[in-house]
Amino acid sequence: MNEVVFPISVMFFDGLEDRASMLATKLKLPLLAYSKSNEIQSNLALLVSNYGLEVIHLGKHSPGPISCNFTTGSLDYRRLHGGGKNQNLAKAIGIKSIKQKLYIMDVTAGLGRDAFILASLGAKVLMLERNDILAALLADGIYRARMIEEEKGEDFKKIFKRITLINNDSIDYLNTLEDISIPDIVYIDPMFPPRQKSSQVKKEMQLLQRLIGSDEDSDKLLALAKSKARYRVVVKRPIHAKFLSDQEPSYSLKGKSTRYDIYSNKKIPD
Length: 270
Prior knowledge:
Elements: E1 8-12, H1 17-27, E2 31-33, E3 44-49, E4 52-57, E5 66-67, H2 73-81, H3 88-93, E6 103-106, H4 113-120, E7 124-128, H5 132-147, H6 149-152, H7 154-159, E8 163-166, H8 170-175, E9 185-188, H9 199-212, H10 218-228, E10 232-238, E11 251-254, E12 258-264
Parallel strand pairs: 1-2, 1-3, 6-7, 6-9, 7-8, 9-10
Antiparallel strand pairs: 3-4, 4-5, 10-12, 11-12
């Protein structure tokens, strides 16, 4: 597991000790029952509850729990009303039709939000996440989504047939790829300081940055991704950020706060 340089534990609500215990053993973290008395013992915790797996900050001014949720809220709204193939993410990736079967490798999966949208647009998506705790959140989110996929409908159910999650370092994984398994597109969304106006979003991103750290090897990841992607590499950046590794892309797509830099190897066939 990536080294954690601050106190963190796995906590659980009553009746969920077995599930929490397995997670604590896997992540090599201490296991505690959730109570107010724990708030002075740990800065961060993984909380196993009936709501799923969450990362929570136990001190004052907590931004609230962070979890991986594919079934409700803003991400589900984005799936249904986010603009489909006309949104900048889809254009940057090169999705023109749901009939395309592009194979996308999201090498910085995070909480899986963009990967989920891409899979909802028909792409086959491999999510790579090297941080064990984030990978655990992703696995829990996928598990909970599959538990209710029947009631969400056939289109929702098909999304998770197109998603694969691997808890591994992306550079190590890309270095082992054989030609037969190279991705059509490599998608990189490196961690960067929050620029959103919402203080709640800023606090969430700050918590994730504290958990993950900075992507100090993103320059190396870009160079490797460009050598492995069949058609293109797409890098997500803040609108005014410099180019990753100071490498100018083939072109960029700009939104209000986000920019997608596209590094083309060859044209995607129609």
